[in-house]
Amino acid sequence: MKVGTSMRKTKGFIFQKTSSPPHKPSLTRPRPFKAYSFVPFSPLAMLDPTILTIGGIVLGIAIIERILERWGVIDLVDQFAKVMRFILPVTFYSALLYFFAKFIF
């Protein structure tokens, strides 16, 4: 053996043959499709404290109006009726919007 030469011989290792081929993008593209989802809502969602409070207030005002009518205080009942003609639709639609905004969307 000559002095200065190493006893180890190294072989060249080609990585391209052992590694997997590079990923080629597919020529066919997936077609876009519309996906719809249906989310059923539970009637138990109406037991939300805000909905129950609004409903309780409206129901309480209606009961007070009936009691005043039985007592014969017609002038006060007419005032309640005028106010309730405005308050009931506003309250109903507000509660409906709140319900949909909180539980559906």
Amino-to-carboxy terminus distance: 84 Å
Give the class from helix and strand content and strand pairing. Answer: mainly alpha
Helix content: 55-70%
Number of distinct beta strands = 0
Approximate shape: rod-shaped
Q: Report the major sheet.
A: none
List the helices and strands and how they pair.
Blueprint: H1 15-18, H2 49-71, H3 74-104
Helix pairs in contact: 2-3
In words, what does this structure look like?
Helices cover 55% and strands 0% of the residues. It has 3 helices and no strands.
Describe the structure in brief.
By secondary structure, the protein is mainly alpha-helical. It is 55% helix and 0% strand.
Please tag this protein with its features.
mainly alpha, 3 helices, 105 residues, rod-shaped
